[in-house]
Fold:
Amino acid sequence: MKPVRTSPSKLRIRGGDAVSPVVATIMMVAVTVILSSVLFVLVLEIANMTDDGGQVPDSGSTPLPTGSGTPEDPYLLRSIGEIIDLVNDRDSHYALASDIDASSTRFLNDGAGFEPMFGLGNSFRGSFDGNHHNITGLYINRPSSNQVGFFSWIAADADVRNINIIDAEVIGGNNVGILAGRSTGTILECSTSGTVTGQDRVGGLVGANWRIVERSHSNADVTASGSIIGGLVGENRQNQLILNSYATGTVTGGSTVGGLVGLNSNNARITNCYSVGVVSGTADVGGLIGSNAVNGQILSSYWDTQTSNTLVSSGGTGKTTSQMKQSATFLGWDFTDIWVLYPGQYPLLVSS
Structure:
């Protein structure tokens, strides 16, 4: 039996009639278009399973923040990815729109962790409102760098408020604090917890304050090898003010070590503040203030002589634990709008 021959001008579909090459080409193009469409839909579905920019949701990064960066319409930040990638204008205005998980910063920059906002040594001149949100798990490991913190330097015109940085681990050289290494601006209603380690001018909130810290507190443990170490602020100077604030963490350093502030000098004032953490060092160690010099003023401020294991301070008034939990101890304090005192507890800020 001879094989069936097909005309070279025809193609035969199995089980059917022969078709011309033109029809076959059209059919192949149609199939290609259909397959491409299916593939495109699949790609879209995969993209929808990830966050903006094709990144996993945990990174939280988006191409652009909400807002225009003005005081009335600040850039709104929702993730540590946005903070890292999008906060780059030192004169703009920012606000947190949600709590921030910063635990991934431990794996950044070959183990050095988070780079301070706007870079090491660079000042921030705008405003940053945390809206009382938490930034949790911030990690900075830069022992050879100075002015280390979430902000490296808060400048004179800057306003930073309502930020809670909790469970942080910050390591730096000189001028080190969890919120800021150095501040010549305004800090209002901010708090920190975790650990901070450095050499000179190290504080649980700010390493060196040359302006205003108000209604703020730190529960961080502070450790430093050098001098001017404080539970809240390492150094407070130049006619500046710490008002209605407190520290509860352990403070360990060399010289000029205080439960609240290491060095208060040059007409700087501390008013309506307290500390309760254990304080230890080699020289000039105080339950509240390590050294108060050059017309520094300490007004209506206290420390717990029992929990601090320290009976002396370069300023302030020492009280027993029991006395530190009684409103009558704190002369002139506002226990209506600023402070609240629950039975058996130390005073807390209303904003807390």
Summary: The first strand starts at residue 11 and ends at 12.
